[in-house]
Amino acid sequence: MPYVENRPAGFWIRFLAFFIDGILMSAFAYLVAVVIRDHKHLESFKIIGSERYYTTAGMIADNIYIILFIIIFTATLKGSLGKLICRIQVVNQDHSTISLLKSIGRYFAHIVSIFTIIGVVMVGLNKRKKGLHDLLCQTVVVYRNQYSDPTDW
């Protein structure tokens, strides 16, 4: 299939992917808590707040998910599970797969974008739909081509 430039993914679809990732992360942390019998974590689901992230299960789940997110999802599958579900992908500006090193850098740049808030809001404010983390790492988030090779998922 000839090269077709995919259109940039905007703020709301990226927000939806991020939200889905949060739900999946919580479910994964809950599963880890059940497996290791972390009662404090299981109880924290009844409490509104961030207490659950300071439990053993929360820390284990966070670290595993970060590793999976960086290595498997972003560097190999071109996006997190949320991005896969939303049919968007993270690629270099030439639409090639990003490297593992760039994936790590983008992960930490995304944290900076979230803390500054404007770094994420930028996605909705510019024509190319790039956030601060995209600008810093020279990446772009685009919709997946519906006719793409299944290995491109």
Automatic annotation (TrEMBL):
TM region positions: 12-36, 57-77, 107-125
UniProt-annotated location(s): Cell membrane
Protein's UniProt keywords contain Transport: no
Signal peptide: none
Keyword Ribosomal protein applies: no
Coarse class of the protein's main subcellular location: membrane
This protein's UniProt keywords: Cell membrane, Membrane, Transmembrane, Transmembrane helix
Record's bilayer topology term: Multi-pass membrane protein
InterPro entries according to UniProt: Pra-immunoreactive, RDD
Residue ranges constituting the RDD domain according to the UniProt record: 8-137
PANTHER family in the record: LMO1584 PROTEIN, PROLINE-RICH ANTIGEN HOMOLOG-RELATED
Record-given protein name: RDD family protein
Organism name: Alkalibacillus silvisoli
